[in-house]
Design brief:
Strand content: 5-15%
CATH topology of the largest domain: Uridine Diphospho-n-acetylenolpyruvylglucosamine Reductase, domain 3
InterPro entries: 4Fe4S_Fe-S-bd (IPR017896), 4Fe4S_Fe_S_CS (IPR017900), FAD-bd_oxidored_4_C (IPR004113), FAD-bd_PCMH (IPR016166), FAD-bd_PCMH-like_sf (IPR036318), FAD-bd_PCMH_sub1 (IPR016167), FAD-bd_PCMH_sub2 (IPR016169), FAD-linked_Oxase-like_C (IPR016164)
EC number: 1.1.99.39
Number of domains: 7
Shape: globular
Pfam families: FAD-oxidase_C (PF02913), FAD_binding_4 (PF01565), Fer4_8 (PF13183)
CATH architecture of the largest domain: 2-Layer Sandwich
Family: In the N-terminal section; belongs to the FAD-binding oxidoreductase/transferase type 4 family.
Protein name: D-2-hydroxyglutarate dehydrogenase
Length: 1002
């Protein structure tokens, strides 16, 4: 065994001893060094990957202090740590090969608010949007507005001194930081706040840890004041990382050590609490969206927009706009951002005006639009058109699109993906257009494509060049491009980092600070963390240390990605394209993605976590010589007798096999991630593949076989429905089912007899086009057919009232249950058979309509992934809302309905590009019924998930989060069979499907 391996083993043993000692000393949080947890914490939103030795999830300040203090013992002094919040950093700031202290799981309490003095005190794990949701009823908000605000933590914002939109008016996080509670590497508690310089100098005389820190900081910042003022650019974005300039007020009368902590990326202390300044919400808001002929015009026009006394000016280029148009997010903003039909926009500026006086805003907007009208008329400045939005709800939708831009860039086609490594430059706004012109020329010289978006009012533009870092020749571009961009920003009087921190770009610190000031940074690091235990390599190193600064070139995530088999990359490129943007960590309970993570708060139970685990699982299998087939390979051809593929248990794989299984079991297979995620990570697809191979090694439970084959046995069971229902519904059988197969609250079989014209292909094929136009073919799914025949009856009635004749197609299995449980060979056989039948029927050119969208979408999604193009064919099964929307509803005579009515949609349906909500609202409006569509998360049933006994707590929690309040407060209708079943079992009353509701009004 070589020296490096021996050292690694010894370190592992030290870590294990440390974790055991920490547990014995009363650490109340979670201690986890499992392969899956360390792996999930090895990435953020950057191009880097470092696997930590362990992850600590403290529940209190005492836990944090205990963990750090214990590491001071001689036997543990080689250990090092990095604090972590939302994990949204774009430069690897919180990544470490040491021990992660994750404050996001438990330390999420809002501790105190004082509206008179305008401050709030929070723990470091509080999420930005969570805080603002809390503050809103009080009439306040926490100002810095990030694109990752629904998952970024306050602690993370402090550590990167985050800013974002509107910073020209509202400043950075440090501008709102009133005090900080943090713990040093030895467990010493340090509390910081603004004090008089005289008081700070008095405290610096004390011979304790705080006195030493104050003395060193005062000396560095006071004696080098002139040099600091000359080096720091006069920008809204100052030189982050140990803010030597703003530690003093301009008149030097006050001193604030918190400014040193802000932007320090956890390299000085672990922040656990903060007291924050809060700002009154201004009641009036207007957004002017301006379209330009090209992006250069948008940039060059921005100084004028800033001079219009606006609150903020945001920009996106045509690449981002086009990606947004291809995403479900565009549905919510197209009415506000679409240009006239004959105009193609290649740049967009969004100009916001906030205020307490509506007349004042109207006057500012009027002045701006008058000038814009003049520019459009004279064909100047590249202005093509503009729109005005005053509704706060609509403005939030537009900003949601802008915020999603980061993730959307990751969904670019091909192996080259726009990546963050030179994206955070800041230059004086008046220099921005010229700077970007040179920046673009630089990237063009490397034949790179790129996307751009950012805060032009502050001179910050996020530029993401597209590279495939698994390609060695492209990987070699990282360093020279970074060097040249750093040089370019200095040329234009700017900074290489404006708001996203340094992380693995720390190597450029000496270049921007200068040798003398960088020495002062090292002195400060030394007095805070002499042994370099906190996030070593980031920002700077202590004096006397031989450690290197973190560099742009390593440790790249591509080291892992390039070892994933090409056939897995081909079959699961959506899942493996996860770029770590973390939108699935969205804390909001009314969003569909991701239900399981909302319950457990365990990163492994998120699309990002599962994608990371699946990638590593497939990589390690390949390294052990296991050949994993493509989804469309012959291995999955129906009736083949190829040998089973045995997954490996070598090395870390045995543990990882079971840990991935545990994470996948918690997935509801709702498919929200496959649309709501910016890069369309499809976990249910990867989950089905993994389960198929996992169970080849470890076998299956009886319930898996029962669920997978339910579509096959339901037609038989339905014949004996009158005998079976009393049995299924009995309390005794429920108890037995719960104990024996782990299922409960099973639905009763339908007793409805359906009478329609029998399907006769030959007879229908003889009809002419006009005659066939009078028919509608209903594609049966197992749940509607055998559990909800009354819905089919209502559908037939509605179709007949529309002057058509409904015909029920012969029942063919859909295969959804087989896919969910990972019976992929059987699923492909079902898909092959059903697809062939539907392809034949489609030749009749009669509309085929399905009632449960979650199953209808299987024909277009899951079938397409396992069948070749020729096997799949080109048939189309319409969801019922899609067909109804095309009909002449004036033929329907409906009774008036004036009550409150809300539509609650199935999460699989709502996040699909063929989403039903807008269609149903339109249909009901045409019928004279006002239909509300509140935002809701998952109901907690999601197929069979809610029926499994082990999932009862999670299922109930999800229902209570977002569905219960609507069901209790108003009349609701619901599109999903599973959703209606969930409401019935918790409330005793089953909501109607929209079709049933309409049929009742006829």
């Amino acid at each position: 065994m070589g020296r490096e391996n021996i050292a690694s083993v010894l370190l592992e043993e030290t870590v294990q001893s440390y974790l055991e000692a920490l547990n014995k000393q009363g650490f109340e949080g979670d201690i986890d060094n499992s392969y899956s947890t360390t792996l999930v914490h090895s990435t953020d939103n950057s191009i880097y990957q470092q696997v930590p030795r362990a992850v600590l999830f403290p529940k209190s300040n005492l836990d944090v202090q205990l963990a750090l203090k214990l590491s001071e013992k001689p036997e543990f002094n080689q250990l090092y740590f990095a604090p972590r919040g939302g994990g949204t950093g774009t430069n690897g700031q919180s990544l470490t090969a040491g021990i992660v202290i994750d404050l996001s799981r438990y330390m999420r309490q809002i501790l105190e608010i004082n509206t008179e003095e305008r401050w709030v005190k929070v723990q470091a794990g509080v999420i930005k949007d969570q805080l603002n949701d809390f503050l809103r009823p009080y009439g306040f908000f926490f100002a810095p507005d990030l694109s990752t605000s629904n998952r970024a933590t306050v602690g993370g914002m402090i550590n990167t001194d985050a800013s974002g939109q509107g910073s020209l008016v509202y400043g950075k996080t440090s501008d709102h930081l009133l005090s900080v509670k943090c713990f040093l590497s030895d467990g010493y508690e340090l509390d910081t706040q603004k004090v008089s310089t005289q008081e700070a100098k008095q405290d610096a005389k004390h011979n304790d840890r705080k006195g030493q820190i104050l003395q060193a900081t005062l000396t560095s910042c006071e004696q080098n004041r002139d040099r600091i003022l000359s080096v720091f650019p006069s920008l809204n974005r100052f030189l982050t990382g140990y803010d030597l300039k703003n530690v003093f007020s301009d008149d030097l009368k006050t001193f604030d050590l918190s400014r040193i902590i802000a932007g320090s990326e956890g390299s000085l202390a672990v922040v656990t609490e903060a007291k924050l300044n809060i700002v009154p919400i201004e009641p009036y808001k207007t957004l002017v969206n301006i379209n330009y002929d090209n992006f250069d015009s948008a940039l060059r026009h921005s100084p004028f927009l800033v001079s219009a006394n606006s609150t903020s000016v945001e920009t996106v280029d045509s690449k981002v706009l086009n990606l947004a148009k291809a995403d479900m997010i565009w549905r919510s903003v197209s009415d506000f951002l679409e240009t006239p039909a004959h105009i193609a926009s290649d740049g967009l500026n969004m100009v916001e005006f906030n205020g307490t006086d509506q007349n004042d805003i109207e006057e500012k907007v009027g002045t701006l639009t008058s000038k814009l009208d003049s520019l459009i008329a004279s064909n100047q400045s590249g202005v093509l058109s503009y729109s005005i939005t005053t509704s706060k709800a609509d403005i939030l939708k537009i900003y949601a699109m802008r915020k999603k831009a980061v993730g959307l860039l990751g969904n670019s086609k091909g192996t080259r993906k726009p990546i963050a490594f030179v994206e955070d430059t800041a230059v004086p706004p008046e220099n921005l257009a010229d700077f970007i012109t040179e920046f673009r020329s630089l990237l063009d010289s490397y034949n790179l494509t790129y996307g751009m978006f950012g805060h032009v009012d502050a001179g910050v533009l996020h530029v993401r060049p597209a590279l495939d870092l698994c390609d060695e020749s492209q990987r070699a571009m990282l360093k020279p491009i970074s060097d040249k961009v750093a040089e370019l920003t200095k040329k234009y009087g700017g900074l290489f980092w404006g708001e996203h921190g340094k992380g693995f770009r720390s190597e450029y610190g000496p270049e921007f600070f200068g040798e003398a000031l960088f020495l002062e940074l090292r002195k400060i690091k030394t007095v805070f963390d002499k042994r370099n235990k906190l996030n070593p390599g980031k920002i700077c190193t202590p004096l006397g240390s031989d450690s290197e600064l973190a560099k742009v070139t390593g440790p790249l995530r591509a080291r892992y990605d390039e070892l994933v088999p090409i056939n897995i990359k081909t079959s699961f490129q959506d899942t493996l394209n996860c770029n770590g943007n973390g939108l699935c960590f969205n804390y909001t309970e009314t969003t569909q993605m991701c239900p399981s993570y909302k319950v457990t708060k365990d990163r492994r139970d998120s699309p990002k976590g599962r994608a990371t685990l699946f990638k590593e699982w497939s990589r390690l299998q390949a390294m052990q010589g296991v050949e994993l087939p493509e989804l469309q390979s012959d291995y999955y051809e129906p009736d083949t007798q190829l040998p089973r593929v045995e997954i490996s248990e070598a090395g870390n794989l045995k543990a990882l096999n079971h840990e991935v299984k545990q994470a996948m079991d918690a997935c509801l297979a709702c498919k929200a991630c496959s649309s709501a995620c910016p890069v369309k990570v499809d976990i249910p697809n990867a989950r089905a593949y993994f389960l198929d191979f996992y169970h080849q090694k470890y076998g299956r439970s009886l319930k898996d076989y029962l669920v997978a084959n339910i579509e096959r046995v339901l037609p038989i069971m339905s014949r004996f429905a009158k005998l079976l229902n009393p049995v299924i519904g009995s309390r005794l059988i429920n108890i037995l089912a719960k104990k024996t197969i782990g299922y409960q609250d099973l639905p009763l079989l339908s007793l409805h007899e359906l009478k329609t014209k029998a399907f006769d292909f030959e007879e229908l094929s003889k009809l002419n086009e006009h005659q066939r136009g009078k028919y509608v073919l209903i594609v049966l799914d197992p749940f509607t057919r055998y559990y909800e025949a009354e819905l089919l009856e209502a559908t037939i009635k509605l179709i007949e009232k529309l002057g058509k004749q409904a015909i029920l197609l012969p029942y063919y299995e859909n295969g959804k249950t087989k896919h969910v449980k990972g019976f992929l060979s059987a699923f492909k056989a079902t898909a092959h058979k059903t697809s062939a039948f539907l392809q034949q029927v489609s030749r009749l050119q009669i509309p085929m309509v399905g009632l449960d969208s979650a199953l209808v979408f299987v024909y277009e999604d899951e079938y397409r992934k396992v069948l070749t193009e020729s096997q799949r064919g080109d048939y189309k099964v319409h969801a019922i809302h899609e067909w109804l929307k095309q009909q002449d509803l004036s033929r329907l005579q409906v009774a008036s309905y004036a009550g409150s009515l809300a539509l609650l949609s199935h999460c699989t349906e709502e996040t699909n590009p063929r989403a039903s909500t807008a269609a149903w609202v339109s249909i009901f409006n045409r019928l004279g019924v006002v239909l509300e569509a509140p935002s809701t998360g998952c109901c907690g049933m999601a197929g069979t998930f809610g029926h499994e006994s082990k999932n009862q707590a999670a299922s109930r929690q999800l229902y209570d989060m977002s569905w219960k309040m609507h069901v209790k407060s108003q009349k609701v209708i619901a599109t999903g069979f599973s959703c209606r079943s969930q409401v019935k079992r918790f409330e005793g009353v089953k909501p109607k499907h929209p079709v049933e509701f309409i049929a009742d009004l006829l």
